[in-house]
Write a structure and sequence with these properties.
Layout lengths: L11 H4 L30 E3 L5 E3 L70 E6 L17 E6 L8
Antiparallel strand pairs: 1-2, 3-4
Length: 163
């Protein structure tokens, strides 16, 4: 049951999708990167129009709600963070540990270079998060990590196909 009454207390009914052990649940929600402090689509990135013209990506907010409109390059982009760079210096590739869901880029929908044999489970450059139990025995299968009871969340770019 999803509570939508603004005066009601927020609790498990609002933020929990109950499932049975070993079961799954699919959910689709909209993530905007609001007030993240940097442009999730890469500051000063470009897009290529159908006619081949390369131009900076736009963030058009005609209705004044703070988010890019449907006719923008990335609908629902938080316009206050448009063209703001990540506020940290990223480490070199030799300092990183790679996993199957790393796209090689810190930006949503972008792919970067990876060493041979790394990555491959994230073809659309989404942000992958692992939600899990903190009971160690539930995180392994025959002492092999990861395994057991885990939930993966991936935030995909608007153009990623979701079946």
């Amino acid at each position: 049951m999803l509570v939508t009454d603004g005066g009601a207390l927020a609790g498990p009914e609002l933020f929990t999708i109950p499932t049975l052990p070993g079961g799954t649940a699919d959910a689709i929600f909209q993530w905007t990167g609001e007030e993240l402090g940097w442009d999730i689509y890469e500051a000063n990135s470009t897009v290529t129009d159908p006619d081949g013209t390369v131009r900076p990506h736009n963030c058009l907010d005609g209705n004044g709600d703070g988010f890019a409109d449907a006719d923008s390059d990335y609908p629902w982009e938080f316009c206050a963070d448009h063209n703001r760079a990540i506020p940290v210096k990223l480490p070199s590739l030799s300092s990183l540990a790679f996993g199957g869901f790393y796209s090689g880029s810190p930006y949503l929908g972008a792919l970067g270079s990876l060493p041979p044999g790394e990555g491959g489970l994230n073809p659309w450059g989404g942000f992958a998060y692992m939600w899990h139990s903190h009971t160690e025995r539930e995180l392994v299968n025959n002492d092999v990590f990861p395994g057991g009871m885990m939930t993966m969340l991936i935030v995909e770019a608007p153009w990623a196909p979701i079946d």
